[in-house]
Amino acid sequence: MQLIQNVPVSRVFPWSNGKARNTMQLHRSFIESENESRINWDSTTQVLVVNTDTPNQWGEYRGYRVMPNSGTAHLTVLNSSTLMNAARWAEYDVQVTRQKDTEPSSAHPYNSQDVNDPPVNFERFFDDRESLMQEDLVLWLNLGMHHVPHTGDLPNTVFTTAHSGITFMPSNYFDIDQTRRTVNMVRIEYSSDNTTAVETFGQSEATCSFEAKPVNLWDYRGDVVVKKFPFQPDSPSSLFEEK
C-alpha cells in the first residue's frame, strides 16, 4: 500500500534568485504492516495498491488508486455502547489486512447476539501485525452517509443523494492512455476554429432501433423492508421504531 500526499513546502529553486517559493510537493510513503493500516480518507492523500517488483518503463510502480466516489462519511460514534465489539469494521474508512482464508468476512450473522464477545471481532484481525509488503491484500472499505431528516423527507425519504461509492482507477498500470486504443476513437483536426479533417479509423456510423413502451405500474410488487440494528426479531413493529 502506497500513500502519495500533497504537502506544502517552502524551498529555493535554482531559478528563484535565492528566494524561497511557497509551493507544494508530493510525499510518498508505504503502509508496511497491519499495525498502521487502519486510516480515514484524507483530501490531500492518494491511496494506492502497487506492485513494487514490476515498475513500468519510467520507474513508476504499477497499481490501482482507491478513492471515494461520493457520499462517504466518517463514523461519528466512538466505541459504540450498542455495538461494542460487534462492528469494529466500521471504525475507519480504509482498513487493509494480509489475505487469509481464516478471515473471510468482517462480521458474522450472530454478532448481535453477544456484542461483547461476538463470533467475529474484526479488531482481532490486526493483532498479529503482519507485513503488507508484496503480499496478497484485502481492502475493507466503508461506505456511508449522514442522514439528518428534514421536511423534504416527508412522507418519503429522498434518495437522489443517498448513495455512496468507491472508484478503482489504474495508476501507472498502463504505459499509455487506454482511450487511444478504443474501437470508437476519432481524431478531429482544426484550424482557425474550423474543422479541417475528421479521421474515424474505419468505423461505420452506428445505427440502432428501439421500441419505447410505457412502464406498467400495475406490475409493482411492493417495498423492501430494511431491518434496523438493534431490533427485536419477535416484534416486527420494532423495525420501524427508530424511523
From TrEMBL:
Catalytic EC class: oxidoreductase
Record keywords: Copper, Metal-binding, Oxidoreductase, TPQ
GO cellular component: plasma membrane
Known EC number: 1.4.3.-
All residue ranges annotated as the Copper amine oxidase catalytic domain in the record: 17-178
GO MF, any single term: copper ion binding
Post-translational modification: Topaquinone (TPQ) is generated by copper-dependent autoxidation of a specific tyrosyl residue.
Co-factor binding comment: Contains 1 topaquinone per subunit.
Protein family (similarity comment): Belongs to the copper/topaquinone oxidase family.
Protein name: Amine oxidase
